[in-house]
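A protein record in our archive is deliberately plain, so that people and models can read it alike. The tokens are whole numbers drawn from a learned vocabulary of local backbone shapes. For reference, a complete record is included directly beneath this paragraph.
>
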Amino acid sequence: MQSINIHEAKTHLSRLVEKAAKGESFVIAKAGNPMVKVTALDVPDQSQIRRIGFLSGQIEVPDDFDRMGEDEVAALFGELP
């Protein structure tokens, strides 16, 4: 994430706000110390982002999953047992 000193932020505020609105967050620092993070309002925070595994325990994979449709596939390729 880009860090910008406070003087530069004041000088280029319009440009920086446009970048933040497009999703490019940045930090404003004073004397090298981070003070604030600027980000777009519609960007979801970390608690709103869904992760892989969100359906854990809600679906069940059949035991024969690897063989499902085996006969149909074999018939398509002329390899009937």
Observations:
- The helical segments are 6-11, 13-21, 70-76.
- The domain at 1-40 is CATH 3.40.1620.10 (YefM-like fold).
